[in-house]
Write a structure and sequence with these properties.
This protein is mostly helical and about 240 residues long. The protein contains eleven helices and two strands.
Length: about 240
């Protein structure tokens, strides 16, 4: 049980004990009108003070923590929109320039009657953009970061941590699903159902929002990171593909 809940349980226990002590206390002697008004007012002031002071000692919600999470989630998109995707435009311009040069070389070859030398495909065809963090270590880092940012541990247990039994343990998910299947499950929670979690699947416990919160590269990194977990000693439920 988290320490915050332990503290809360203790406080409620103390309040309950005080209530029962007051119920068992001897009745207060009869007071005159003025004294009774003063006593009631003093009692309510004391009670309100204790409640406010006690509540201030409890863990408080910090909006800065949530703001930091939101900044991490949308920071990349925000930065890209502010820069106007300048880097992407420059890369496309360089690719187009290479294509123009390749065409000029071919036209010169045709004009002089010489055999045209085929240009390498890498210079004539636009390459697909390399995913952010193409190196294996970077992909794993991005995947684990997304696990934390998206708070997947709230429902799933992994490496003995997290999970509230709303979703299956995932320590052996890499042995049961491919990276592509894991990515499909993240994007479309209804695409697979964990064996023994039929009720949760029908209720749609896993939210259908991650395809909007993560870009494809981040989702692929998370799936790749989860695909490395192949601990057969953990009873990860068998995934069932749904049509």
């Amino acid at each position: 049980v988290p320490s915050d809940f332990q503290l809360l349980f203790f406080i409620f226990s103390v309040i309950g004990a005080i209530v029962f002590i007051l119920l068992d206390a001897p009745p207060v002697r009869t007071m005159s009108g003025g004294k009774s008004v003063f006593a009631i007012t003093a009692f309510w002031i004391l009670l309100i003070t204790v409640c406010i002071a006690g509540a201030s000692l409890l863990p408080q919600f910090d909006p800065e923590d949530e703001r930091a999470k939101i900044d991490k989630l949308v920071g990349k998109e925000r930065a890209a929109s502010q820069k106007g995707k300048t880097e992407e435009l420059i890369a496309r311009a360089k690719t187009l320039d290479e294509q123009v040069k390749a065409l000029e070389a071919r036209l010169k070859g045709l004009g002089s009657g010489q055999a045209v030398v085929a240009t390498p495909a890498s210079s004539a065809v636009e390459k697909p953009p390399t995913p952010a963090g193409a190196a294996g270590g970077d992909v794993m880092k991005v995947g684990e970061e997304q696990w934390q940012l998206q708070e997947c541990y709230n429902c799933h247990k992994l490496r003995g941590e997290g999970g509230k039994k709303r979703g299956p343990e995932l320590d052996n998910i890499g042995s049961l699903m491919t990276v592509e299947e894991i990515q499909q499950k993240i994007a479309d929670p209804k695409s697979f159902m964990a064996e023994g979690y039929e009720k949760e699947w029908q209720k749609g416990i896993m939210p259908n929002k991650f395809k909007d919160l993560m870009d494809p590269k981040e989702m692929q990194a998370l799936a790749a990171w989860l695909g490395t977990f192949k601990n057969t000693s953990v009873n990860t439920p068998k995934p069932i593909k749904k049509s």
